Amino acid sequence: MIAALFLALALQQTPPAPAAVEDLRPIVLAGQAEVVRRYPAPEAGQGVAATADALFAVNNATLARYNKVTGEREAIWTGDRARFPHINSCAAIAGELVCGASNFPGVPHWSAVEIFDPATLEHRRTISLGLGTGSLTWVDRRDGAWWAMFANYSQRGGEPPRDHRSTTLVKFDDQWRRLESWSLPASVLERMAPTSSSGGGWGPDGRLYITGHDRPELYVLTLPAGGAVLDHVATIGIAAEGQAIDWDESEPGMLYGISRHGREMIAMRVPMVP
């Protein structure tokens, strides 16, 4: 009798089992990007960059230049993996190929901006950003400043106590002095977990477009009117499986991404959000 009473009391105090967590569904608020062309590129493991006449496949210590019209490879650069363990993305800025690099998945995190000649792929110089903040994944230029995303991770490549929620957008001046920084909104972080932002850049409409690690989604963000968290405006479906992206400034609205599984660079026409 007493045992039964204790059992009943224990059952009353036992919290109910948590409800099953559903797999997150793709959130597409602003349509789907149109695939215009696919370019086979065995080096397309991390990202892609675009100029008016060339595409650049990015994969850790390897960069390859492709003719945009013919799709033929024109040049390739392979660096020392000890010095260039993880070049994640590149963007054509002011006549140079500006690349975000780090020691991912190594810890403690260090980051660097690597500069290349876009015609020859010769390595020109390094801007060392050192330790802290996270792993640099992409760099862009806007309004006379440098903008850089520092990724953090909850699992592989993470540096506790930071996790994926510590992913940070940082604004730098021309001397790479930190001016301001913002975090990502929860609605984007939950889509990226346990990884982080792999690609990004300012779009032709003045909004920030970023990708995660593996979801075929493009997140449209703006700087907030107040506070330090970016505003999530919309999500667009894309063919690229996350990873680093680049806007083609010679053709507004054209975005390039990659399929790391198919080893392809993908040209996509992105619908602009009203």
3D architecture notes:
By secondary structure, this protein is mainly β. The protein has a single domain, classed as TolB, C-terminal domain (Neuraminidase, 6 Propeller), CATH 2.120.10. The protein has helices at residues 2-13, 186-192, and strands spanning 34-40, 47-50, 54-59, 62-67, 73-78, 86-93, 96-102, 110-116, 123-131, 135-142, 145-151, 168-172, 178-183, 199-202, 208-211, 217-222, 231-237, 246-247, 254-259, 264-269. The strands form five sheets. Strands 1-20-19-18 form a four-stranded antiparallel sheet, with no helix packed on it. A four-stranded antiparallel sheet has the order 2-3-4-5, with no helix packed on it. The relative contact order is 0.18. Residues 1-23 have low confidence and may be disordered. Keywords: Signal. This is SMP-30/Gluconolactonase/LRE-like region domain-containing protein. Residues 1-19 form the signal peptide.
Draw up the topology in text:
Layout: H1 2-13, E1 34-40, E2 47-50, E3 54-59, E4 62-67, E5 73-78, E6 86-93, E7 96-102, E8 110-116, E9 123-131, E10 135-142, E11 145-151, E12 168-172, E13 178-183, H2 186-192, E14 199-202, E15 208-211, E16 217-222, E17 231-237, E18 246-247, E19 254-259, E20 264-269
Antiparallel strand pairs: 1-20, 2-3, 3-4, 4-5, 6-7, 7-8, 8-9, 10-11, 11-12, 12-13, 14-15, 15-16, 16-17, 18-19, 19-20
